[in-house]
Amino acid sequence: MNIAxxxxxxxxxxxxxxxxxxxxxKVLKKSNLSFIFCDSxxxxxxxxxxxxxxxxxxxxxxxxxxxxxxxxxxxCTEGMLGLKEQSLGTVLNLIHGxxxxxxxxxxxLEFNDIAYISPRIDASVLSYNKLYTKLYAESLGVxxxxxxxxxxxxxxxxxxxxxxxxxxxxxxxxxxxxIVKSADELDYALDVAFEFDTQVLIEPFIEGVLEYNxxxxxxxxxxxxxxxxxxxxxxxxxxxxxxxxxxxxxxxDAEISAELKSDIQEAFKKVYGTIFExxxxxxxxxxxxxxxxLNEINPIPGSMANYLFEDFEGMVKRLSTKLPKEALIxxxxxxINSIQSAKGGKV
Amino acid sequence: MNIAxxxxxxxxxxxxxxxxxxxxxKVLKKSNLSFIFCDSxxxxxxxxxxxxxxxxxxxxxxxxxxxxxxxxxxxCTEGMLGLKEQSLGTVLNLIHGxxxxxxxxxxxLEFNDIAYISPRIDASVLSYNKLYTKLYAESLGVxxxxxxxxxxxxxxxxxxxxxxxxxxxxxxxxxxxxIVKSADELDYALDVAFEFDTQVLIEPFIEGVLEYNxxxxxxxxxxxxxxxxxxxxxxxxxxxxxxxxxxxxxxxDAEISAELKSDIQEAFKKVYGTIFExxxxxxxxxxxxxxxxLNEINPIPGSMANYLFEDFEGMVKRLSTKLPKEALIxxxxxxINSIQSAKGGKV
Lengths: 347, 347
What we know:
The structure is a homodimer.
Chain A: E1 2-8, H1 14-27, E2 32-38, E3 44-47, H2 54-58, E4 66-71, E5 74-79, E6 82-85, E7 90-93, H3 104-111, E8 116-117, H4 121-128, H5 130-139, E9 148-151, E10 164-168, E11 178-180, H6 186-196, E12 199-204, E13 210-218, E14 222-228, H7 238-245, H8 258-272, E15 281-288, E16 291-298, H9 312-320, H10 334-342
Parallel strand pairs in A: 1-2, 1-7, 7-8
Antiparallel strand pairs in A: 2-3, 3-4, 4-5, 5-6, 9-12, 10-11, 10-12, 13-14, 13-15, 15-16
């Protein structure tokens, strides 16, 4: 299987994407891998596998690698005789946050007719924006954590039951997110969140809430991971986060009832629906009073949540043969020809 | 003002986009225009202004024009000495339907840092998909025409009050849309709609409903068009549609009360919000029992609805100086450097 791992991006999660890519190099052992780095300036570079070390990017050495230009059908190198197409195989979109999760990379690859594993445009936009995720989930009958939406130009004089959690509507990870324990902390937390977005969500912060992650994709049928009960920490510090994005060891199935497991899996399948076809995603659920609530969709989870699957590499291979294809639109100019003939060729 | 009109695309509305572009050539008289044609195969061509006639595209002559390659910062021609950047000015996205309205063109231009007039990615996805439009509008407190959603794999055995109108969830224009007057016509209409999409909306068809269009954009403040009462015809035939996309004559303000006009304009402003910044859109409203309901958002209306504005060309110029800019994300590799120092340079 030829897989090109696309990572980096103009994103707050640029560095963590590098960590994810290095991890997948270790995980996808049987595949023929290429590495496409998107630098902070959105230039593409073809990275030699032996250079897949984080320092190579941090110290700017990557700039010595070959630049790639994306055009119809392929990534190309620019040579003496014009652009030269590279056969890199199916692209695995591993850009976390902006560019990768907001629909841009999906658009670039779709437009240029390159096979890719990633949420498509709609799925990206709906999962990158936490408000749209809620509207989408509710329309499917999947319950969500209750929320208030606040725009940066609206009054902050609002009644809340503390503690609450403040989240910028966009951005992945925990960037700009704060837990607010009382009214006098609210203003500062909103200032922080509004630095990253013009809209924030305010949700009840549920101390010690039961939290479960379910990852999966659809190949011939759904392939679901184990259900994981993630480690509780109020926030990820940088080392914890590093561990999170570089995980490749297997984890244990959560000890939950068959009924709860089934509820979580049904909610996952509803969310995945048809719009997430072509992608491997992770949904994070809360369980409150026995009810499964969608917390968020991780459209490109750290190191693709490989550690939650029995046969991650086999699944990637099966998925790469089941990628959704855009409808072919045939343009025969019959409309213009009719108009021309009606107007005597004058338009 | 330098404006590059981008038109064509891999879209059912490819031909109508050519008509739109020819019309704007006539309308934007004082501007320095370039024309970028995206053919059905998604190759870009730089079209000489004198060749802006529909036959030039219908008979394939455009293939003799210079090809363009989009890369970071500019559209380029490929020459003996590599890629050569073209200074074409602000791109006006005039691709109707797929590619132009679904977020792809916005992504391409945003990613490559090219100034453009168009709905951005989120705004495109929310307006291209009629279901998401409804969820979005309802979340803003804007009323919509009531609807049922039907998936292609669901039972068609549904209770409906006829007549109804069947619409594929995506696609612009009237493609795949049918009015169904009784239960025995339903199956055929659904077959037609499901040829274009896996989801359809079923709405009550309201005979003789009052319909009003409002176009506008936000420059220093909102610039709103007159309110138009569109011509009623059950459906657009091809000549009617041609007239619609090639309009450049002014129309009359609808004869409605100041109160209704204000309700329509307030609904427009709510829908436009911040997410449509950078674009000129048209919202189509129904008025039922004095209530304003959003019917649909036209994110790239035919010939940009130029005929609804007093000073269309001036507005385009003002808008081109008020385009939203993505936040700059500075990547300093402090995270990787911290991890490296914590791990003794071993990652």
